[in-house]
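re: ur question from earlier - yeah i can do the single chain one, its not a big deal. heres the input i used so u can compare w yours
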Amino acid sequence: MPKKAKSKQNQNGKKDTISIPEKPTDFELEIFKTLDKNIKNFKKMMDSPADLVCKEIQVGGTSSHCAIVFIDGLSNGQYIAEQVINTILTFDLKSNQINPSPQQILTELQYKVLPTADDISVKASLDEVSLDVLSGNTAIFIDGSDQALVISSKEVNQRSLEEPITEALIRGPRIGFIEDIRTNTTLVRRGIRDPNLRIKSLKLGRRSKSDAAIMYIEGIANTELVKEVVRRLESIDTDDVPETGFIEQWIEDSFLSPFPQVQHTERPDRVRAALIQGRVAILLDNTPFVLIVPVTIGQHFHTPEDYYERWLLSTLVRVLRYVAAFISVFLPGLYVALVSYQPGMIPTALALSIAGSREGVPFPATLEAILMGMTMEILQEAGLRLPKPIGQTVGVVGGLVIGDAAVAAGIVSPIMVIVIALTAIASFALPSYSIAISLRILRFANMFAASLFGIYGLIMVYIMINVHFVNLKSFGVPYSTPYGPLIPKDMKDLVLKVPMTFMKYRPHMFQPGDKKRMGNPKRKGSQ
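and the output i got, formated as tokens:
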């Protein structure tokens, strides 16, 4: 085989030549009838890795041989030894028929010998066999046959089902998705025992070939929506798709928008509720995050807990979230605008108090707000990236120490520390981390606009945000729905959450097939 030479100097100053073998290209993708040729061909294709196991054994009481091929670590070695190798060795095929042909041996192994017949498939291409072997399955090559058997033998190493860290609830199921796609689809099926629940599997990534799945309820989900989701997923052309964040960036409508156009979650109950609404879920192996499409801006402020509590409490909490979002985006900019440009709009007593607290501060209000805002952002990121016990300490102690020291040194005013602290707390009240990051970006845009044009700058930014909402879409659904276009029926479950018995229809914005989700419930005391 041709080799590439790489030079490197040793301790004596001389150059040593390190030979790096090129990837073998003289292998065939077809399966031959010669066992030795198939084994050599497969090893050439894989470049004979150290974890590749190729064990040749005799088939039953015949003179035929077969090869068991699997990857050590990806496959369950104990299962292969007990259920595959031992079964093939001890089963006497010759007692059933004298000198069986390779095709008869393959059929006997598939339907009679191996215990898990439902998990066995026949492959006619080495490329298909390699994909299965690299997925943790076991391939069986039979001498004289140009086909191979593939049996499911994946080694299951997964963490236990735990409560999601990013979506904690006071009331609701204490279970979240894990990194195994089959377990995740099972968690969804447990809550939706509908035969119309569809799971469409596909592979993503030219080299990684990661397992992905699309889940929807046939008859509820709009057919055109499902086709569009499949089309966008099939358009993904990259080597590796390790996480659903890659999928989100590929399939979103506008990559220039700061707002997330795809919803992600770790909670099976949220996915089940979305499927019942007529939306589509996208699952990927090796990640606990599931994507839901389409999504609107209002749904980023909802949590599953809103539907587990009574409607009055849920409505109050939603109103608080919207107020928190407004504070997170506009409070620092509003402070800068009022202090720098429109101090006459502040009540006299409050204006005198602010002026007194700012006495001796060397920076203008704009620079003061930007410096404190950047400091708070850095503390948040430091708290996230550090180990959990240390991160919480850095976030709390760092904020207290820096804020107190900055006020004591006369660098910032106490009122500015209060404004930034209230802004940070308001951003933590938002249930979606993605939307919270988007609002953090807009917060700095508002501060710059307020520093240039005062209140008028804030109004301009607010108008631009609303114009952007109206023009932005998520899989054909306007992001500002049901505000624009106005759909009064869908406003029953937006900010105001009406009692469950009044929500008889699915959201019209998703154009579901079956629009009605409940009958005509009788109120208590009605005849």
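The chain has 15 helices and 14 strands. not sure if urs matches, ping me
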